[in-house]
Amino acid sequence: MKMGERRLLTGSKAMAEAVSLEMKRDENVFLLGEDIGMFGGIFGATPGLFQEFGPERVIDTPISETAIVGAAVGAAAEGMRPIAELMFVDFIGVCMDQISNQMAKIQYMSGGNVKLPMVLKASVGGGISDAAQHSQTHYGTFAHIPGLKVVAPSTPHDLKGMMISAIREDNPVVFLYHKLLQGVAGFKQIPANIGHVPEESYTVPLDKAKVVREGKDVTIVGIQMTMHYALEAAEKLAAQGIDAEVIDLRSIAPIDKDTIIESVRKTHRLVVVDEDYLTCGLTAEIAALVVEEAFYDLADPVRRIAIRDVPIPFSRSLEDFILPGPEDIYTEVMDMMNAKVLK
Amino acid sequence: MTVPVEQLKWMYKTMYKSRHYEETLYQAYFEGKLPGFDLAAGPIPGEMHLSAGQEPAAVGICAHLREEDIVNSPHRPHHHAIAKGVDLNRMTAEIYGKITGLGKGKGGHMHLFDPAVKFSCGGIVGAGLPQAVGAALSSKMKKKDWVTVVFIGEGAVNSGAFHESLNMAALWKLPLVVVIEDNNYGISVSKAASTSVASNAERAVAYGIPGVLVKDNDPIEMYHASQEAIERAKRGEGPTIIEIETYRYLGHFVGDTDEYRDPNELQKNREKDPIPLMKAHLLQEGVASEVEIAEMEGEARQLVHQAFDFARNSADPALETALEDVFN
Predict the structure, then answer these.
(1) H or E segment at A330?
(2) Which helix (H) or strand (E) segment is B27 a member of?
(3) Integer-rounded Cα radius of gyration of chain A
(4) Cα(A323)–Cα(A180) distance, rounded to whole angstroms?
């Protein structure tokens, strides 16, 4: 490939490339989890890594989530840099003690004497009729626990750059990748799951949101699929003369408050879209942050779009109805702007 | 197999130190809590789980360990910490919640971390097991001969983490020794009422590894069983389960009404206190004289008193430190 040529990669390949680069750079980096070896991960979490690094560093485990996460905690305390793969984020139910009481709290309880440089990686999201136990995101669940850095990159570029940052980070990181953004066989291929990814190693910060579309009328904050849906909605809104600014949140803990508030100060309107549950979730948190710091910059009440506190249903039409999509965002913004006109 | 004289002396001195430490702690713990017993009051607030009676489990195996070997302990950690050589001053300061504590006052007595001697403990029953698997995996990956010892109570054997961890450790032949301290009670529920097998050592069969039962609360028996397990771990042959039938002389926590135990059972076990028994053994075998023993005990007491002085004279943490160390 010639210098400067744009190279396209899927999300899955971009994330695996990041892990590969870091495994070459640091012998303490290793992976453990279910079906990550020869199989390469159920959602293309680790393609090619087993072939490159062998079973000593890409370790297939038994179906033992508590032991997977706990072993990563124990190895990290010993100076290794483990990446534990959880396959489906929904499986936190069987290993939450190791996540919430151990991974998140040992650094604090040791007064900073123990460091846990580890990554807990899990696939998130619905849209494939996998029903209530295999379709959640749990973005807010992790963010609610102090001691975890939580990221959810939305593009192949950021999957690589943020994975490199996560592996180098000296604190525990929860790294959530969206099934629909991996670009693996067997899933609907969408433009968002492929993108420009530089070949060299680079980092993307774990605490910065990104304005992915500039606009002046309304700020739409999304993450992963909801960010891509927001971009789709923004195009449709543009046809109606509404100029939407779209922010890719990227980091859930910490939330990059400054980028959001700066945008709201410009647009005076905020819509937050989340593929997680509504109550006590990301949408509420972001709304609260904006109300606390930029209330008088708001021309309209904040709008929230999220899963309406129901488990994610199986039937395709029901799932489509429950998951936020571009139409929901378009309708909400139109309603907001029309409400303004009526006033 | 004979136990080297120095090891015998070390085990006695360490058991004595641990017991004296806890007796001192027991007195100090009640300061400011009476009348009525307010768990959160006084200079040492919070729950307190003492290990008096269980010292043989700790010294019998820690006698074989080096600084680089790893120990993970549960919510009843003092005897293990002392036997692993945790900084006694900073451990005591942590128990008092002082800024000079191992965790700057953020952990307390159930959450002691001393990376200098690779010691950690935690308050969730069974949760240390997978972490010990990870520590043992690290030693293997780094091609070091470091051994990880994880202590659990007999109650933790019934948690899911036990099965997941033992299977994984046996599968990967990790250098791990799982020490089950069977004190016969998970808080108030007796082993007979909670556990389907008489001895948890029998469970080793399920993982294709050795399971050893130490029937007496005897440091020397524990020493021998541990030696074999540690050598096996170092040879790369995988984990061993050692269950020791021990006894805690106090309640699950200090302040526990302890109504679930038959006073005769307690009395019978008090009469078999391993510390005076070992002292008699040392004298009888000519390992140490009365004078030497008195010297060892004196040194141990002095270290304990220094530690409590250090803790009491240390400052409380500044309030804003509560916001630090979430991330490093």
Answers:
(1) helix A326-342
(2) helix B5-30
(3) 20
(4) 13
Residue A254 forms contact with B (CB below 8 Å):
no
**Using CA atoms, how far apart are residues A45 and A14, in angstroms rounded to an integer?**
10
Domains and CATH numbers, chain B: 5-313 (3.40.50.970)
Put simply, the answer to whether B134 touches A71 (Cβ < 8 Å) is yes
d(CA A199, CA A18): 10
Identify all chain B residues contacting A61, using CB atoms and an 8 Å cutoff: 168
Instruction: Residue A248: name the closest of A235, A231, A233, A261 by CA.
Output: A231
Q: How far lies A334's CA from each of A235, A256, B36, B110, in Å?
A: 13, 26, 64, 56
Which chain A residues contact residue B139 at CB under 8 A? 78
CA distance A174 to chain B (A): 14
Domains in chain A and their CATH numbers? 8-196 (3.40.50.970), 210-342 (3.40.50.920)
Report the gap between the CA of B328 and the closest CA in chain A (Å). 6
Q: Which residues pair with A121 in a beta bridge?
A: A85, A175
* H/E stretch holding A307: strand A303-307
Q: In the structure encoding, which two tokens stand for residue B264, read together? A: 């005769």
Q: What share of chain A is helix, strand, coil (3-state, %, to 5)?
A: 40, 20, 40
The single residue listed with the structure tokens 């069974």 is B126
Q: Using one digit for the tens of pLDDT, what is the confidence trace for B252-292?
A: 999 999 999 999 999 999 999 999 999 999 999 999 999 99
- Give the whole-angstrom CA distance, residue B101 versus residue B49: 18
CA-to-CA distance for A246 and A263, rounded, in angstroms?
Answer: 9
End-to-end CA distance of chain A: 57
In DSSP terms, B148 is beta-bridged to B70, B176
Q: What confidence tens digit (pLDDT) does each residue in B13-37 have?
A: 999 999 999 999 999 999 999 888 9
pLDDT of B194 higher than 60: yes
Q: Which residues, 6 or more positions from B198, have their beta carbon under 8 angstroms from its beta carbon?
A: none
State which amino acid sits at residue B3.
Answer: V
- What ipTM was estimated for this complex? 0.97
3-class SS at B151? strand
Q: Residue type at B45?
A: P
Check if the beta carbon of residue A102 is closer than 8 Å to that of residue B127. yes
A254: preceding bond cis by omega (within 30 degrees)? yes
| Residue whose tokens read 């129901």 | A310
Give dist(CA B168, CA A194) in Å, integer. Answer: 37
CA dihedral sign, ordered B52, B54, B56, B62: negative
Ordered DSSP codes for B195-217: -SSS-GGGGGGGGTS-EEEE-S-
pTM: 0.97
